[in-house]
Amino acid sequence: MERNELEAIVEAILFTMGEAVEVRRIAAAVGLDEDTVREAVRGMMQRYEENGRGIKIIELEGAFQMCTKASMYEYLVRIAHVPKKHVLTDVLLETLSIIAYKQPITKQEIEAIRGVKSDHAVNKLIEYDLVCEVGRMDAPGRPILFGTTEDFLRSFGIASLEELPAVNPEKLEDFKLEAEEEIQLTLNVDP
Question: pLDDT at residue 65 above 60?
Fold first, then answer.
């Protein structure tokens, strides 16, 4: 199969599917090995970028997706009206960070870390499709386990969870000290 033909097929698949498609599925569809397909798609990604196209291909944990460049958003809004844009409050960002770094995680574990109920925050993150149920814990009551979605990766511009920034150990120690101080203040307050 010639390179142009392969790229045309990949482009048609990604355009039509509208969601991330695993390399293995594309390879199976075109009858080639995964490395050849991956190399072809990455070449397409580079050319799309170099040619200043309005679309791009992104890589998400062993899958590829065709999408619109963020710089084209204002023009899409003019055509399609204003799509609903989700606002992530500090509470939602805090909850999302906990889930992203600790997944899979139960709501009870999230609440233990945050120190407050997290039903609303978790439900909003599910509604925004940044978090989803990934299974159930093998424990009494079989609590739901939560993890991040492909939309989370897409929204934050990362290809995989390995690209999440590492937590600075010094900052982590500062956070622990602040939490301990807050606990002590709470315990010392008379009702």
Answer: yes
Band of residue 33 on the pLDDT scale cut at 50, 70, 90 = very high
Q: Which CATH number fits domain 3-79: 3.40.50.2000, 3.40.50.920, 3.40.50.11810, 1.10.10.10?
A: 1.10.10.10
Sequence spans of domains, the chain? 3-79, 90-188
Q: What secondary structure letter does DSSP report for 134?
A: E
Token pair 């995680």 is found at 105
Please state, in angstroms and as integers, the Cα–Cα distance from residue 24 to each residue in 9, 11, 92, 113, 114, following that order: 15, 15, 34, 38, 39
Output the CATH code of domain 90-188: 1.10.10.10
Share of the chain above pLDDT 70, in %: 90
Contacts of 124 (CB under 8 A, 6+ apart): 92
**Interatomic CA distance for residues 126 and 131, integer angstroms:** 5
Q: Which of 125, 141, 64 is nearest to 133 (CA)?
A: 125
Which residues, including other chains, have CB under 8 Å from residue 119's CB and lie 6 or more apart?
107
